[in-house]
Specification:
The protein is mainly alpha-helical and 89 residues long. The chain has three helices and no strands.
Length: 89
C-alpha cells in the first residue's frame, strides 16, 4: 500500500464523516442560533429553552435523514471493500 493510496482513503473517509456529521449538526446549530436571538431579545435566560428545540431538530434530522446517512456509509463501505484487490495488488 503506497502512502498516496492511504492518503486517498483517509481523505475520502474524513469527507464522509464531515458530510454525515454536518447533516445532523447544522440544523441544530441554526435552531440554537434562532433561540439564542429570541432569548437575547426577550431577556429570557432559561437554559432548557434552548436545549429542547435543538434536541427535537436533531432527532428530526436523524429520522428524516437516517436513510440517506445509512446509504452514504454503505456505499462508501462497499466501494472500500471492492477496492481492496487494487490497493493490495
Amino acid at each position: 500500500m503506497s502512502p498516496e493510496t492511504f492518503v486517498d482513503v483517509l481523505r475520502d473517509s474524513l469527507f464522509i464523516v464531515i458530510l454525515l456529521v454536518s447533516a445532523i449538526i447544522l440544523p441544530s446549530l441554526f435552531v440554537g442560533l434562532i433561540v439564542a436571538i429570541f432569548q437575547a431579545a426577550t431577556s429570557i435566560n432559561e437554559q432548557t429553552l434552548s436545549f429542547l428545540p435543538r434536541l427535537i431538530v436533531t432527532l428530526l434530522a436523524l429520522i428524516f435523514g437516517g436513510h440517506w446517512l445509512v446509504r452514504v456509509i454503505m456505499d462508501y463501505t462497499t466501494e472500500l471493500y471492492q477496492s481492496i484487490p487494487q490497493i493490495v495488488g
